[in-house]
Amino acid sequence: xxxxxxxxxxxxxxDAVSAFFSKLGWMFREQPTLDTGIDAHVEVxxxxxxxxxxxxxxxxxxxxxxxxxxGKWVFYGDPKHHDYWLNHSLPVILVSHVPETDMTRWVxxxxxxxxxxxxxxxxxxPDNQFLNRESISKLVDISDGSxxxxxxxxxxxxxxxxxxxxxxxxxxxxxFEDLHKTLKKVIIQVKVLDGSEVLFTKEWGVAYAGxxxxxxxxxxxxxxxxxxxxxxxxxxxxRKSLEYVFDFNDITSKPIYPYDIQFGExxxxxxxxxxxxxxxxxxxxxxxIESGTRSKMWER
Length: 300
What we know:
By secondary structure, the chain is an alpha+beta fold. It has two domains: 9-145, Trna Endonuclease, Chain: A, domain 1; 159-278, no CATH class. It is built from ten helices and 15 strands. The chain has helices at residues 9-24, 79-86, 136-143, 147-157, 159-166, 213-220, 230-236, 239-243, 248-251, 277-291, and strands at residues 27-30, 40-46, 49-61, 66-69, 72-77, 92-98, 103-109, 114-116, 121-124, 170-178, 183-194, 197-209, 224-228, 260-262, 266-275. The strands form three sheets. Strands 10, 11, 12, 13, 14 and 15 form a six-stranded antiparallel sheet that branches. The protein has a five-stranded mixed sheet with strand order 1-2-3-6-7, with helices on both faces. α5 (159-166) packs across α10 (277-291). It is elongated, with a radius of gyration of 22 Å. The relative contact order is 0.10.
């Protein structure tokens, strides 16, 4: 009997990189298959809080991707990735994981490290630069940038959600909020739906103080118009639990509000995102940056 062969090689590399960053407390986010050329993002965390400093990662697993040239480990790249990585809005690192030796090398892909060849391009992995704690300060330096660069990176990080909305899919955000604490630490879960089917989910933590939930969500998703999920609220709103804490008419007059409050302390929210003018404009901008062509999708 013939059975299908299973190749888990690439999975081993992704899992090794994910484990390293997870142990640091950084946020490793494997990308959905709709992204091309970037396998994951990692966001630097400091003292358990997100910093907004993000690195794009391409992971190559297996010794076959590297060539030993004069004692140096060299990666020869495809022409299609040259411009994509060098012009990416995020700083990009290339990671090579060899399962047989459990060695994980990395190198930043930039104009200083990349060398053009007769056929394509190559990059040389620095000696003794492995994905370990000795590399943390270098990775932090790579992630640094201006406020403008960080905002630009955040938009590109959210591009899969914006693209999903452009394609007619639904983007839902769910979170709990401790209503009585000044410093609120919230786990946000984002779901992309096609009808009732969940295409993918993301989770990350946010901390804030002295702000309304709507202001925080608007800050976190500046490219979106934000509303409660009215259809969901029509079926799940627990008026009694809201009246226990708030004036019902006052709280429901706000742009977003919880549909349920558990134990008089924890508000549960479910909101929907829609593209605003910034989101629509950014998708046109991203098309030009990534493909060099002017999008006509929003022309009237």
